[in-house]
């Protein structure tokens, strides 16, 4: 027998072994538990509902109605109307960067130079600030306020 014949036979045998092994591996894994496992869904699981994104800012009952709550980190002022609507704004005054320090009578007050902002819109009521407090997107769910 020639070396070329042995070599061809060896290659064919190797190819056959590879094919048989591949088919056996495919058949073994096709019906395995891992192959039948469900892929991830957006439904609630053992870790809670899927919609839990955002940073917790405060429990809703800490934000007084017809008033507000000023958070230090991140610097956000939460306001809540008498009807329960919650708004969030940056707590950094756009005039010179002081942090607002009070929410009362429908206004958010800056202690540094007296600017006042609307609790529902963040718009300037009284200067020297010339622009309002930027709005922060939030979500209220399950009794708490989160960034969204
Ligand atoms: Fe707020 Fe000047 S920094 S009024």
Distance between the termini: 77 Å
Mean pLDDT level? 79
Low-confidence stretches: 19-27, 33-50
Number of helices: 2
Q: For the report, how would you describe the main beta sheet?
A: 4 strands, antiparallel
Based on DSSP secondary structure assignment, what is the total number of beta strands?
Answer: 10
Tell me the Rg in angstroms.
Answer: 32 Å
Secondary structure layout:
Elements: H1 3-30, H2 33-36, E1 56-59, E2 67-71, E3 76-80, E4 86-90, E5 102-104, E6 107-109, E7 116-118, E8 124-126, E9 138-141, E10 144-147
The structure holds FE2/S2 (inorganic) cluster.
The site of FE2/S2 (inorganic) cluster has 11 residues, from loops.
Describe the protein:
With 148 residues, the protein is of the alpha+beta class. The protein contains two helices and ten strands, in the order ααββββββββββ. A hairpin with a 2-residue loop joins strand 5 (102-104) and strand 6. The model is unreliable at 19-27 and 33-50 (pLDDT under 50). The structure holds FE2/S2 (inorganic) cluster. FE2/S2 (inorganic) cluster binds next to loops.
